[in-house]
Write a structure and sequence with these properties.
2 domains, 8 helices, alpha+beta, 6-stranded antiparallel sheet, Jelly Rolls
């Protein structure tokens, strides 16, 4: 309808009656009327942009630990193959998500337990928190890991979880499962078949076909790439380096700690795919932020969402106007479009946090927007 026709319709004595009838028909057909007839600027566009938004939220380790330990007492691997407590954002309930595109979950593994082998479409990562005898077998590589070690289980890779010996071990997982759900791309598979003597046999445990420390020994030398090995290893387009060791990350942190860094991000170290230099996954990436004693970042707002787990120290973050006082192994979320700043008030102790971001997905779609606010109030683009 042209602007002239709209004007004539509005002048008609029957306009209100005809508009009511149009509303009724549109509602019956599940149609959204993308126009504004009320005296509210951009009302139709604002309604079009409505969706369930995650809220800034803080989960304290002191609250979580009793529940994690109790789950280990009450739920065995015979009861369920999975024993994870997922951080559900209260603003997204009943959707199981920590932010709109990712979730994080704490898991306890008991000595001698072995979770059956499985694979799934969501990309996942396990970060060791307590204990040093966790192990995950990923596409034939058995990886033992502990505090700070980052273990990948990329899209469609067979993997299993266990603890070899000693005390229970706790780790936190990060998955892009909510994003996969939105894209109708989620699937799980627990039926691994291995050919033996010409016959396919179902296995709960996958064979170990790579030596221990294969990932570290093959990819730890930055700038050097072997042409004598197959780098795909079933990962598709994810990083073929299945474990990033904390001791190497910590060593790099020490080398960088005296640099100026960024007033918006302090000292930030990014985990990368050793083949491309790009993100670990196309959907998620992982970074470590060092806040030196007394260091405070300038506010940042971006459309990427963040999950932040404290690896060391204590401090304070302000997210969307909410103040979170955090300690080791706490996790808090920074939903997209929320202003965020961090502060380590200690005069002598540093603070380190793991930051998980869906930034790669936004970059791939050319949608990333990132801004910073200077102390004088000026807002600048950072992306």
């Amino acid at each position: 309808m042209t602007a002239q026709m709209a004007t004539l319709a509005q002048r008609s004595d029957n306009w209100a009656k005809e508009m009511a009838e149009l509303h009724r028909r549109d509602e019956e057909l599940s149609l959204y009327e993308y126009w504004s007839t009320e005296e509210v600027a951009h009302d139709a566009t604002n309604k079009l942009q409505r969706y369930a938004k995650a809220a800034p939220h803080h989960w304290r380790w002191s609250d979580l630990l009793p529940c994690i330990e109790k789950s280990g007492e009450l739920v065995s691997m015979n009861d369920s193959e999975r024993r994870t407590l997922i951080l559900m954002n209260p603003a997204l309930a009943p959707t199981i998500a920590t932010v709109t595109t990712m979730y994080a979950g704490y898991r306890i593994n008991l000595p001698g337990e072995v979770g059956p082998c499985h694979r799934h479409s969501p990309n996942a990562v396990r970060l060791g928190l307590t204990g040093d005898t966790n192990f995950t077998v990923v596409e034939g590589e058995q990886i033992r890991f502990g505090y700070g070690d980052l273990v990948l289980t990329p899209h469609d890779c067979w993997h299993s979880h266990a603890v070899e010996e000693g005390k229970p071990a706790i780790n936190i997982s990060y998955l892009d499962h909510p994003l996969c759900n939105v894209l109708n791309a989620t699937y799980f598979d627990s039926d691994l078949y291995i050919e033996e003597n010409g016959v396919k046999v179902r296995k709960d445990l996958q064979p170990v076909t790579f030596p221990r420390d294969y990932s570290v020994n093959t990819y730890r030398r930055g700038g050097l790439r072997s042409r004598a090995v197959d780098h795909l290893r079933g990962t598709g387009r994810a990083s073929p380096m299945y474990v990033y060791r904390w001791d190497q990350t910590r060593e790099f942190i020490e080398e960088m700690r005296h640099r100026d860094g960024s007033p918006f991000e302090a000292i930030m170290i990014e985990y990368t795919d050793p083949l491309t230099g790009g993100p670990v996954y196309r959907t998620m990436n992982f970074e470590v932020m060092l806040l030196r004693p007394g260091e405070r970042t300038w506010p940042v707002k971006q459309n990427a969402s963040l999950l932040c787990t404290i690896m060391q120290g204590s401090g304070r973050s302000t997210v969307g106007g909410k103040v979170f006082e955090w300690n080791q192994f706490d996790t808090f979320c920074v939903p997209g479009q929320e202003w965020c700043e961090h502060w380590n008030p200690s005069a002598g102790e540093e603070a380190i946090m793991m930051v998980v971001t869906d930034e790669p997905a936004l970059q791939a779609l050319n949608l990333q927007v990132k801004e910073g606010r200077k102390p004088n109030g000026e807002i600048i683009r950072l992306d």
